[in-house]
Amino acid sequence: MVNIILLGPPGAGKGTQARLLVERRNMVQLSTGDMLRDAKASGSPMGRRVAEVMDRGELVSDEIVIGLIGEKLAAGGGGYIFDGFPRTLAQADALARLLERVGQRLTAVIEMRVDDAALLARITGRYTCGNCGEVYHDVTRPTAVPGVCDVCGSTDLRRRADDTEESLKQRLLEYYKKTSPLVGYYYATGDLVTVDGLGEIEAVAAEIAAVLEGQGD
Length: 217
Ligand code: AP5
What we know:
Blueprint: E1 4-7, H1 14-25, E2 28-31, H2 32-42, H3 45-56, H4 62-74, E3 80-83, H5 89-101, E4 108-113, H6 116-124, E5 126-129, E6 135-137, E7 157-158, H7 165-179, H8 181-189, E8 192-196, H9 201-212
Parallel strand pairs: 1-3, 1-4, 2-3, 4-8
Antiparallel strand pairs: 5-6, 5-7
Bound molecules: BIS(adenosine)-5'-pentaphosphate (AP5).
């Protein structure tokens, strides 16, 4: 089974590409950001604990996110897209152990490279469907009918609490301080492939498809 990590700063397009891979290759998206937002919305004790941390743009504890991913992997399957996980070296080590435990291995780590100016424009223009999770953008990917999701017809279109310029600054700081060392880590393991995340959505999808070509999915 093909198992990949999409690695990149906030707004690099990880979620957008993960959804395309789910649709086109029947892969399974494991987004720790989505899992944490679900916990937050449910009002569970864990959700209440992580809400403020997320809104400030800081990272949630390794223990919590490793636990969330561990639960998903224990359920069995494969063909995973790790979206937004791992984000620290401790999470990367934990992922290696968790995959080994279920008899899976990483196929590739795809680093999506996008410069900071483009990230700001992407993050501040983003909105998503509250019903099906489809991701849109005011300029680059608006809904066909204003206010109505193209995929499910819902009118529940939302902006994320952490999609502000101030929170993005903190999220970028966290990315460069704690997550970007993973680029070197996966270069050393021989798993790293870098794609140009600045192109149009379909151009980036084609680059990722080329990486997966011949990987036996
Ligand atoms: P998370 O939800 O993972 O957010 P993120 O990493 O900041 O990434 P984003 O979802 O903001 O961006 P994306 O790369 O998916 O971009 P998208 O495709 O939407 O995490 C949120 C928070 O949860 C974290 O800050 C942290 O607190 C916590 N957390 C999550 N995981 C954690 C972990 N492992 N450890 C600790 N804490 C964790 O695209 C963005 C916009 O750009 C969209 O509008 C889209 O339409 C547009 N777009 C996409 N691609 C293109 C393109 N090629 N050209 C033009 N526009 C594009």
